[in-house]
Amino acid sequence: MAFEEYWNNIYKKFSDGKPAYDDWLDKYLGLINKTKGTILDLGCGLGNDSLYLTERGFDVLSVDYSTQAIKNVKRIIPKAKTKIVDISKKLPFKDEEFEVVIADLSLHYFDNKTTTEIMKEIKRILKVGGYLFARVNSVDDVNYGAGQGEKLEDNYYFVDGYNKRFFSFDDINKYFSVIGEVEACEANMERYEKTKKLIEIKVKK
Q: CA 20 to 30 Å from 122, out of 61, 63, 83, 163?
């Protein structure tokens, strides 16, 4: 099964109802409130963060690889700005177009080369002084496949039907410092059946 079909099938299961979001962006609202333009939700998935931001009055562009994900976002946020985007390719945005980029659980699916190129693209589209706020799988996330399945690269596995990368703090510095100044901390997510172990990242270009 192609990855696009895989994700479309996943998101079809959530085509009714309203997604639940957590409060992870609360601590960054002081910075986000200074944003004058559109916030990019890169790999918006279920639209959790797009909903959080639009409910607080922010202008958001929600992008995802999955056509079904975009359909879901348009349903829950009728006036949403959306775009189908494969983030593993060159991003269809101008240099320094965004002051804030959100990438929540969308950057941990790629091999080393692609992950590095994605970071370069995020740097390109961020304004100087702009921020990336992101969450990715931690190497401690054993509930969701860390160290399991077919090993493709260090901390990168084919597990549960798709590729997953798990980040150590060394990995965070390796990849995200391509963009700028990195701050990172451990975090838990209780959105799913089991606790998900994450690393939360703030990067200033």
A: 163
Write phi, then psi, for 15 (nearest 5 degrees): -80, -5
Is residue 85 within 8 Å of 78, Cβ to Cβ? no
Q: Are 125 and 42 in contact (CB under 8 A)?
A: no
Cross-strand partners of 201: 134, 184
List, for residues 174-186, the tens digit of each pLDDT value.
999 999 999 999 9
CB distance 111 to 167 below 8 Å: no
Task: Tell me the DSSP string of 111-122.
Answer: -HHHHHHHHHHH
67-76 and 3-12 helices, crossing angle to 10° = 30
The DSSP bridge pattern shows strands 81-84 and 60-64 to be parallel
Q: Say yes or no to pLDDT of 143 above 90.
A: no
pTM of the shown model: 0.94
Q: What is the pLDDT of residues 114-141, one digit of tens each?
A: 999 999 999 999 999 999 999 999 999 9
Encoded amino acid at 200, one letter: E
Whether the CA torsion 203, 122, 7, 138 is positive or negative: it is negative
